[in-house]
Q: What sequence folds into this?
């Protein structure tokens, strides 16, 4: 074909692609207009409300929409560069181009977020936008108002990415900026309707999960499309990886939306009688359609993605998905501008406003029944434990389906640990833990010293390495290879050193409670959640070093582990005694602002907290010591059996050589690599 003809065909194809993108632009614009007129912006100004002017009324939802679209584009390009496209440590050319797109989109995101700050201040102060452009006024809004602070943090994150993104050349830094961009999405989630509703702790977390899921899903698909359309050599791998990501995002979006709707709507009738409920119904319908499209992808086009027909089918259906996603994003802006039904704004006392739920009734005397009857839903721990249990059950089922053995004791230990996690984070321990220091300390001890023992004995990493399929020698690394790389990484080697793990386990308690950090974390919904997750994480790390059976960096011998345990626990006792003997109140401002009308005084409650920390530390230590002794004896028995087999094979004539071999095996036992990349599975060690 002549060059001119080929050039003409290329121009035709480019024109068709441009016109194919036009519906998405039209729908997105229409959705933004609908959002502006449906919510608080646009339309007729209510009586008694001073209007900031038509510019603010229309520019605020529009700037939010632009910021949302730019954020999605930023995250999508980063997902393509850091997750979907396989490559070596340094970014391949396609990944480098994706980083440039991410930086450009981040620049738009930063500018739009600054516009959101300006128009939000104009809207709240009922002044025209031109009147609030003074730097002093804007700085005061950013410094004193949570909404201004949230959008300013988002704008700062986007601006940093726009400035430093073009210089990224390694996959590690691409993943870092992906996490930073996702973190930049979250601050506004803690300042909208969710933060002002009853049950705001669950509401803001569910909204954050919802936002992250939507952004990963929409952005990943948008930037996956050109990779498939151009039939990139790694398109099939990228689509398979995105399929897993999209499935997780669908669950996150659905779960977050359900929790948010349940909290904000007073009943089922509000779905049909309120503007907020009708928008929820429309978004639900869009989500269902997107889920069906994803299921069709997995069944039809995923297997044939490498062919021209399969790629074309994927592109056509994905383009339709993006149109639906554009509508959903516009509806999201409408929901942000639409107040929930007024009946959901239950009157809360000042203490209830701080807690996020009404002040619980008096705890009473033994057996402290409200600790088991007062429950409060926490979406992070609810969905986290559910996902952990489901993944573990799937792994066990996969092993048994192929005839492999998995100890029942490990399964029981894992699910018992998840059950205790739910008890500590959603029962009365969580409710009263925000109102009483003593109950909070009991919750801390359960999460840091009881749950980790049960979970590490479940050996989840060993199960994952045995259940996940191994990637081929020439194939890009899969989940199993990435898990092995993490377990043997320098980072894990450093934090799993007994000295580091012990310092984190005990030192973090002093760092949290004996500084102003404790009160700051208690006053923040996100901070309180981070504190609980931190207690659980440092407990898992410490007990993994002591009694863990999962593979990892070199650990000390059993005698060394016992020494670490015995050396660490006196510092825990010191922490407990210091609480009981302290004359000053920790986080006094928080406990005083609650003005709890029942129960012991603040000083007596702090003494009880120290006593609980002292009393609950001995039992986990005793259990850990017994488990460690059993592991030690069983390990020696396994080494003795290996030596016996060696003697039976012909070494019986030299008992001294056999004994020396036995001693050498004992000393080398903890220095051997538990798992390597070429090994089909790690050894099945540890208590059952």
A:
């Amino acid at each position: 074909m002549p060059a001119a003809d080929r050039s003409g065909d290329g121009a035709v194809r480019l024109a068709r692609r441009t016109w194919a993108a036009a519906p998405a632009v039209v729908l997105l614009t229409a959705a933004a207009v609908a959002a502006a007129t449906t919510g608080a912006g646009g339309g007729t100004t209510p009586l008694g409300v001073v209007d900031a002017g038509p510019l603010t009324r229309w520019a605020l939802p529009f700037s939010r929409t632009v910021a949302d679209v730019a954020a999605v584009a930023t995250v999508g390009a980063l997902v393509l560069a850091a997750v979907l496209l396989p490559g070596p440590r340094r970014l391949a050319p396609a990944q480098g181009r994706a980083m440039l797109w991410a930086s450009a989109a981040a620049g738009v995101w930063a500018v739009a977020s600054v516009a959101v700050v300006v128009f939000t201040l104009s809207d709240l102060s009922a002044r025209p936008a031109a009147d609030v452009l003074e730097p002093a006024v804007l700085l005061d809004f950013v410094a004193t108002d949570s909404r201004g602070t949230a959008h300013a943090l988002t704008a700062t994150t986007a601006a940093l990415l726009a400035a430093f993104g073009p210089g990224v050349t390694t996959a590690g830094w691409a993943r870092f900026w992906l996490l930073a961009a996702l973190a930049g999405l979250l601050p506004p989630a803690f300042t909208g309707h969710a933060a002002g509703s009853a049950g705001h702790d669950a509401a803001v977390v569910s909204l954050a999960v919802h936002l992250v899921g939507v952004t990963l899903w929409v952005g990943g698909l948008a930037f996956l499309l050109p990779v498939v359309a151009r039939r990139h050599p790694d398109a099939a791998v990228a689509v398979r990886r995105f399929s897993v990501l999209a499935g997780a995002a669908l669950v996150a979006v659905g779960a977050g939306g359900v929790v948010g709707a349940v909290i904000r709507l007073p009943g089922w009738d509000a779905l049909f009688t309120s503007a907020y409920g009708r928008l929820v119904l429309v978004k639900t319908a869009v989500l269902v359609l997107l889920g069906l499209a994803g299921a069709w992808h997995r069944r039809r086009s995923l297997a044939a993605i490498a062919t021209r027909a399969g790629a074309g089918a994927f592109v056509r259906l994905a383009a339709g998905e993006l149109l639906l996603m554009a509508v959903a994003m516009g509806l999201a802006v409408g929901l942000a501008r639409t107040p929930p039904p007024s009946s959901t704004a239950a009157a809360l006392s000042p203490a209830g406003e701080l807690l996020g739920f009404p002040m619980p009734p008096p705890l009473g005397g033994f057996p402290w029944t409200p600790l088991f009857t007062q429950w409060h839903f926490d979406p992070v721990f609810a969905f986290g434990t559910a996902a952990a249990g489901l993944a573990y059950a799937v792994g066990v089922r996969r092993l048994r389906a192929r005839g492999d053995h998995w100890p029942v004791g490990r399964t029981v230990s894992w699910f018992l640990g998840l059950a205790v996690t739910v008890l500590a984070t959603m029962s009365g321990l969580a409710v009263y833990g925000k109102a009483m220091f003593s109950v909070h300390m009991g919750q801390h001890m359960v999460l840091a010293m009881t749950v980790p023992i049960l979970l590490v004995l479940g050996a989840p990493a060993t199960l994952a390495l045995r259940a996940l399929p191994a990637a081929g020698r020439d194939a890009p690394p899969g989940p199993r290879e990435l898990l092995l790389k993490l377990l043997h990484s320098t980072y894990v080697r450093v934090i799993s050193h007994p000295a580091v793990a012990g310092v984190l386990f005990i030192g973090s308690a002093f760092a949290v409670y004996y500084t102003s950090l404790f009160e700051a974390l208690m006053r923040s919904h996100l901070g309180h959640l981070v504190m609980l997750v931190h207690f659980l994480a440092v407990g898992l790390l410490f007990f993994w070093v002591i009694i863990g059976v999962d593979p990892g960096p070199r650990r000390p011998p059993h005698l060394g582990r016992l020494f670490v345990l015995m050396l660490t626990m006196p510092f825990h006792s010191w922490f407990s005694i210091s609480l009981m003997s302290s004359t000053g109140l920790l986080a006094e401002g928080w406990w005083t602002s609650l003005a709890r009308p029942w129960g012991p005084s603040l000083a007596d409650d702090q003494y009880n907290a120290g006593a609980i920390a002292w009393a609950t530390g001995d039992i986990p230590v005793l259990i850990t010591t017994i488990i460690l002794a059993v592991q030690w004896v069983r390990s020696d028995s396994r080494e003795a059996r290996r030596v016996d087999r060696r003697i039976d094979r012909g070494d019986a004539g030299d008992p001294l050589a056999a004994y020396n071999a036995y001693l050498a095996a004992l000393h080398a036992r903890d220095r051997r690599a538990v798992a390597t990349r070429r090994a089909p599975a790690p050894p099945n060690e540890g208590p059952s």
Confidence is low (pLDDT under 50) at residues 1-49, 670-688.
